[in-house]
């Protein structure tokens, strides 16, 4: 075995606290000066660490420490903080509580992601429906109904999706046509504008009669 | 012991300072031991212990009786000590690594005399100052303070994998530094 491999095994031996090194490794350590020294250094570090645990310098004047702390507390003249707040913190710190919050957060994320996808999908279908049937009043009304239904159901989130769509020229143009060129949608446009403040005004045609 | 301790803590929660003084008396040495091992300086460690006990008084209600009291205390002490350590390290006086080197040179000025374990111990505490904070904390708690892996997990909030990996790197790094600085001869008596 190479010395680097032996050193890795020695590291593992000290980390895991195993009782004995494999016989092959021991044999290598006995024969190789470098690995022997590496092993001895690790052993020494372990021994010294044990000694530090046993012989940490103590406080030379514990009474003084006590007096200092009690004086500092007297200066504050306030007791431990609100116990009812403590109960709330204990509840928040409780493992079960944190697990419930995590599961709820994941579930909410999944629900909103799914809903967002559904809304986006419906808008795409709506746009395609309108573009593919330009000039057909029946289709237009149908599209408008879809739009209104969608808006009632998901007003805030629909607007978010529309704002995303604003970055896409094709989608923007579809929205523009849908909103700007149809007199029947004037009321709808005003409602829509109320929500879509972040879409630049020039996104709408000036002569759209809005 | 545990029953008596919990009773004392309940009294402290009610604002009983006499009960709190008995807690200080019982645990100040352990708190100081950890603070000293993190900071390597007695005066800084004393300040940290004092701050920590004041914090414990204020936050005693956050102590969960199902948790080991020393783990809760170590959490507070180690946080304060690490904050202090960072502040000390940031001070623009002498670079921390230079301080370590100066102290090491002083310690090894006896030339051929082999270093005692006590001196080596002080060097190891100093050398932990060169480690990244997480490695320093895990190494100090596990190897120098003698906490079990479970206790280190409770104090630091790190996962077992992170503890293992930090400990491995810390031990390796300190071993290498010791070997480099002192040479094999001094270490291998």
Features:
heterodimer, A: mainly alpha, B: 189 residues, mainly alpha, globular
Structure explained in plain terms:
Chain A is mostly helical and 210 residues long. Chain A is 77% helix and 0% strand. With 189 residues, chain B is mostly helical. Helix content of chain B is 77%, strand content 0%. Chain B is built from nine helices and no strands. Chain B has helices at residues 2-13, 17-39, 42-58, 69-90, 96-107, 117-127, 133-144, 149-156, 160-187. The interface between A and B is large, with 42 and 50 residues.
Strand content of chain B: under 5%
Tell me the radius of gyration of chain B: 18 Å
Figure out the total of helices of chain A: 9
β-strand number of chain B:
0
How much strand content do the residues of chain A show? under 5%
Instruction: Sketch the major β-sheet of chain A.
Output: none
Please state the overall shape of chain B, judged from the principal axes of the Cα atoms. globular
Task: Give the mean pLDDT of chain B.
Answer: 83
- Helix-strand category of chain B: mainly alpha
User: How do the helices and strands follow one another from N- to C-terminus of chain A?
Assistant: HHHHHHHHH
Spatial shape of chain A: flat
Oligomer: heterodimer
Question: How large, in whole angstroms, is the Cα Rg of chain A?
Answer: 36 Å
Unreliable runs of chain B, pLDDT <50, ≥5 residues?
Answer: 110-114
Order of helices and strands of chain B: HHHHHHHHH
Mean pLDDT of chain A: 68
Helix percent of chain B reads: over 70%
Write the layout of secondary structure elements.
The complex is a heterodimer of chains A (210) and B (189).
Chain A: H1 3-16, H2 23-31, H3 33-54, H4 62-76, H5 83-93, H6 95-132, H7 137-166, H8 169-180, H9 186-195
Chain B: H1 2-13, H2 17-39, H3 42-58, H4 69-90, H5 96-107, H6 117-127, H7 133-144, H8 149-156, H9 160-187
Helix pairs in contact in B: 1-2, 2-3, 2-4, 3-4, 4-8, 5-6, 7-9
């Amino acid at each position: 075995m190479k010395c680097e491999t032996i050193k890795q095994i020695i590291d593992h031996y000290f980390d895991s606290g195993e009782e004995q090194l494999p016989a092959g490794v021991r044999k290598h350590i006995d024969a190789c000066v470098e690995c022997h020294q590496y092993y001895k250094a690790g052993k020494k570090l372990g021994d010294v660490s044990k000694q530090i645990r046993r012989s940490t310098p103590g406080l030379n004047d514990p009474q003084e420490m006590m007096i200092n702390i009690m004086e500092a507390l007297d200066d504050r003249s306030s007791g431990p903080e609100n116990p009812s707040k403590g109960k709330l913190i204990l509840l928040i710190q409780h493992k079960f509580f944190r697990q419930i919050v995590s599961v709820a957060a994941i579930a909410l994320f999944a629900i909103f992601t799914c809903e967002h996808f559904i809304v986006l999908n419906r808008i795409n279908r709506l746009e395609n429906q309108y573009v593919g049937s330009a000039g057909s009043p029946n289709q237009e009304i149908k599209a408008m109904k879809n739009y209104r239904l969608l808006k009632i159901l998901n007003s805030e989130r629909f607007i978010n999706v529309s704002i995303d769509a604003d970055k896409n020229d094709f989608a923007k143009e579809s929205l523009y046509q849908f909103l700007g060129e149809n007199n029947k949608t004037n009321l709808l446009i005003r409602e829509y504008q109320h929500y879509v403040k972040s879409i630049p005004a020039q996104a709408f045609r000036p002569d759209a009669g809005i | 012991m545990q029953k008596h301790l919990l009773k004392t803590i309940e009294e402290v929660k009610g604002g009983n300072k006499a009960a709190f003084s008995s807690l200080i008396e019982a645990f100040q040495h352990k708190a100081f031991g950890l603070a000293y091992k993190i900071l390597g300086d007695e005066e800084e460690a004393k300040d940290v212990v004092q701050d920590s006990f004041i914090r414990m008084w204020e936050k005693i209600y956050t102590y969960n009786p199902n948790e080991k009291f020393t783990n809760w205390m170590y959490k507070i002490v180690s946080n304060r000590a690490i904050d202090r350590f960072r502040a000390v390290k940031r001070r623009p006086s002498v670079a921390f690594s230079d301080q370590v080197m100066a102290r090491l040179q002083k310690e090894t000025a006896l030339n051929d005399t082999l270093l005692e374990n006590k001196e080596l111990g002080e060097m190891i505490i100093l050398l932990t100052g060169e480690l990244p904070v997480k490695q320093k904390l895990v190494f100090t708690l596990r190897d120098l303070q003698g906490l079990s892996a479970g206790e280190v997990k409770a104090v630091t909030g790190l996962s077992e994998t992170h503890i293992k990996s930090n400990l491995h790197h810390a031990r390796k790094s300190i071993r290498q530094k010791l070997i480099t600085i002192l040479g094999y001869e001094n270490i291998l008596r």
